[in-house]
Design goal:
The protein has about 400 residues and is α/β, with parallel strands linked by helices. The chain is built from seven helices and 29 strands. The chain has helices at about 5-15, 150-160, 200-210, 225-235, 255-260, 295-310, 365-370, and strands spanning about 25, 40, 50, 55-60, 65-75, 90, 105, 110-115, 115-120, 130, 140-145, 165-170, 170-180, 180-185, 195, 210-215, 215-220, 240, 265, 270, 280, 285-290, 325, 330, 340-350, 350-355, 375, 385, 390-395. A hairpin with a 2-residue loop joins strand 21 and strand 22. Helix 3 packs parallel to helix 6. The longest helix has 19 residues, at about 295-310. The model has no long low-confidence stretch (mean pLDDT about 95). Bound molecules: adenosine monophosphate and magnesium ion (MG). The site of magnesium ion has 6 residues, from loops. Magnesium ion binds near residues 243, 244, 250 and 292.
Length: about 400
């Protein structure tokens, strides 16, 4: 038997074939979760003018200490109508424009106020003044291309005056579940039938990775049904199928995809669960054949499909990102395949504890639903003892 691709090799085969989709202009209000397609540069200095960091009084540092007449009030949003003269003070609100002539702000809490004057201690030049451009200068990069736009990035882009940004187009994704035994949840099961779990699961996973997903479809295990469903699905940027990629007589997905012009890149990877996964391409479409067992589909999605989707959207680091944690129970290693165990995650002080869920078989989707993490148990002999530091992938 030829040696199977490892997880890393298979991921590399996929990512090396991904080209980011073209960028498009997106209004900032619709850009949450999108990936920036080009460096975004500030439209203004940030802050755009020297502003006060405190509610207090604008002064000239050289005039302090002393008693200074208060000659004007400066609210946020409205600059003073004249410059601050020698020996004067002006009331200023947080965010107010520090007037010409002033170089410091004294917080209201530390002055003694009289009717029309204040008594102040000595203050240093620049105190409580936010200099113009102190965060960024106009034209500086606010957020770099390839960054995922989360709350903080969106806040920075808005503050820098950008009403819209260039984001990579979201991938269009299609899901086809195969299997004559499948019934939609809510329908009545006849003998031998099971409920179709992968369509809704994979559609949700795809959407969470930024894809625009067409409603999932199902195909019975006959060539005509496969041909029709797969041909439609191949119009998307990413086609994800479930089931029908093993070696059974009804496993038709790879054969029909080949007839439809899909070039297979690999079939089978040394992972557990998910060994029969297939991957191919047709023109710009990435084609993933995930195994039918729901846990296998879920795990393969996280290992292979999510990174591809993020790479299509131009992410610099598409993952998957494994981080260290500590096993709470021993697990036996698989000699031939890297294993990805479903585990519950618990934080205990500085420790991240990973407790494998009971029921690790690949049809046990209800058990897997209780997991927060996939623990990477590298192939090898013997076991990983309780307390071993392992790497895990978060599922939350
Ligand atoms: P297959 O990969 O087609 O051989 O399917 C492997 C196992 O997963 C079989 O027990 C199938 O009945 C089950 N299965 C396949 N597709 C689905 C699905 N969409 N939802 C739930 N179970 C499925
Ligand atoms: Mg099947």
């Amino acid at each position: 038997m030829a040696t199977l691709l490892t997880f890393e090799e298979a991921l590399q085969e996929i990512l090396s074939r991904v080209r980011p989709l073209p960028a498009e202009a997106v209004p900032l209000a619709l850009a949450a979760g999108r990936v920036l397609g080009e460096d975004a540069r500030a439209a203004v200095d940030l802050p755009p003018f020297a502003s006060s960091a405190m509610d207090g009084f604008a002064v000239r540092a050289v005039d302090t200490p002393g008693t200074l007449p208060v000659v004007a009030r400066i609210a946020a949003g409205k600059p003073a109508t004249r410059a601050l003269g020698t020996g004067e003070a002006m009331t200023i609100a947080t965010g107010g424009v520090v007037p010409a002539g002033a170089d410091a702000v004294i917080p209201v809490e530390v002055v003694v106020q009289h009717d029309n004057s204040i008594e102040v201690q000595s203050v240093e030049s620049g105190a409580h003044v936010r200099p113009r451009g102190g965060d960024l200068a106009s034209g500086d990069v606010v957020v770099r291309a390839g960054a995922v736009l989360r709350a903080a990035e969106l806040g920075a882009l808005a503050a820098a005056g950008l009403g819209e940004v260039a984001c990579f187009r979201r991938p269009r994704a299609a899901v086809v579940s195969t299997g004559t035994e499948l019934r939609s949840p809510g329908e009545r099961l006849e003998p031998g039938q099971i409920y179709e779990a992968n369509g809704v699961m994979l559609a949700a996973a795809l959407a969470s990775a930024g894809a625009v997903v067409t409603p999932p479809t199902s195909a019975t295990d006959d060539e005509q049904a496969h041909r029709a469903a797969l041909e439609r699905g191949l119009a998307a940027d990413v086609l994800v199928t479930s089931g029908g990629v093993s070696v059974g007589p009804h496993d038709l997905v790879r054969q029909i995809e080949a007839e439809l012009g899909v070039t297979e890149v690999f079939w089978k990877v040394a992972v557990k669960p998910g060994k029969p996964i297939s991957f191919g391409v047709r023109e710009g479409t990435l084609v993933f054949g995930l195994p039918g067992n729901p846990v296998s589909s879920l795990v393969c999605f996280e290992l292979f499909v999510r990174p591809a989707l993020l790479a299509l959207q131009g992410a610099r680091e598409p993952g998957p990102v494994f981080v260290p944690g500590e096993l709470t129970a021993a697990v036996r290693r698989n000699p031939e395949r890297d294993e990805f165990l479903r585990a519950r995650l618990r934080v205990d002080g500085a420790r991240v504890l990973l407790e494998p869920v009971t029921g690790q078989e690949s049809h046990m989707i209800a058990r897997a639903a209780a997991a927060d993490a996939l623990v990477f148990a590298p192939r090898g002999d013997g076991e990983l003892a309780a307390g071993t530091t392992v790497r895990y992938l978060s599922l939350r």
